[in-house]
Amino acid sequence: MDCYVVDAALAGEEGVEVIEDYRGALVMSAYTAVSVGEHRWALLADIEVNELNRGAAAERPGMTGLLSLFYGLCLWSVWYWRGRDLPVTGGSLAGDAAVPALGDDAGPAA
Prior knowledge:
This protein is an alpha+beta fold. It has two helices and three strands. A hairpin with a 5-residue loop joins strand 1 (15-20) and strand 2.
């Protein structure tokens, strides 16, 4: 196979590129070099861009539903908490309130 990604892999480079394969089809090609003993091999993995697009299109409905659910929950939580005061339990948020030490009498012991 005569292709520049093969030459790049044999030179020790690695990467992912969209190239034309030997049939003239656009493919996404990942390449790297693999050394076995004293020999260097080029390792390539190709997938057609059309096949990638079909796979991505098949995943869209599921992702759309999941993102819509998440967005709806966010909107609901904003609606639910608007105008409500958050409960504050003792002291300020800055941490300058007195915190009882362990062992202080907080009531009858059981």
